[in-house]
Design a protein that fits this description.
Mean pLDDT: 80
Strand content: under 5%
Helix content: over 70%
Number of helices: 3
Number of strands: 0
Low-confidence stretches: none
Shape: elongated
Radius of gyration: 23 Å
């Protein structure tokens, strides 16, 4: 006799996943990644302008991490 507890989730449909992956080409993935990185960089620049004191402290901490990092 087997006792099961919790919720049993159905396995995702393999065919649906494969067709979704086939539709997305490498070029589309790279385009989405480039867009994301561009927006991330813009957000960081905006944060640096809006809170210069905090941004300066973050730059100093990053510089300290880079100085103490060992290869």
């Amino acid at each position: 006799m087997e006792i099961r507890t919790g919720v049993v989730w159905p396995m995702p449909d393999r065919e649906a996943r494969e067709t979704r992956e086939a539709r997305e080409t490498d070029a589309e993935r790279r385009r989405r990644r480039a867009q994301f990185l561009h927006e991330l960089n813009e957000a960081r620049e905006l944060r640096a302008r809006v809170t210069p004191r905090r941004a300066r402290a973050a730059r100093l901490r990053q510089a300290m991490r880079m100085r103490t990092f060992r290869w």
